[in-house]
Amino acid sequence: MKHVLPRFTRPIKSEDDPLMDVSYWSKAMDAYDAKNYKTALIETINYINSNVLKDHSTEDDIQVTQ
């Protein structure tokens, strides 16, 4: 699979703009290639905004609310 670095852009700017951290993208792609889809999803969320999962446990089911 060819990996390209996506750019997440919200359609409307707000005070909670995404805080992209490129280091998470490589982790997400490695996990995806290893068929570890849960970790791939977690690292993709962290890529978009690592504050979303900051105080949440990722060991069990993930529930994120705002």
In short:
This protein has 66 residues and is mainly alpha-helical. The chain has 2 helices and no strands.
Q: What does this 3D model show about the protein?
A:
The protein is an all-alpha fold and 66 residues long. It has a domain at 17-54. Helix content is 36%, strand content 0%. It has two helices and no strands. It has helices at 23-33, 37-49. Helix 1 (23-33) runs antiparallel to helix 2. The longest helix has 13 residues, at 37-49. The radius of gyration is 13 Å and the shape is flat. The protein starts with 22 loop residues before the first helix and ends in a 17-residue tail after the last helix. The mean pLDDT is 78.
Rg from C-alpha positions?
Answer: 13 Å
Query: What is the overall number of helices?
Result: 2
Measured distance between first and last alpha carbons:
34 Å
Order of helices and strands: HH
Give the overall form.
Answer: flat
Residue share in β-strands:
under 5%
- Regions with little confidence, pLDDT below 50 for 5+ residues: none
- Provide the structure class: mainly alpha
The main pleated sheet reads as:
none
Mean pLDDT: 78
Helical proportion, percent range? 25-40%
Number-wise, the strands total 0
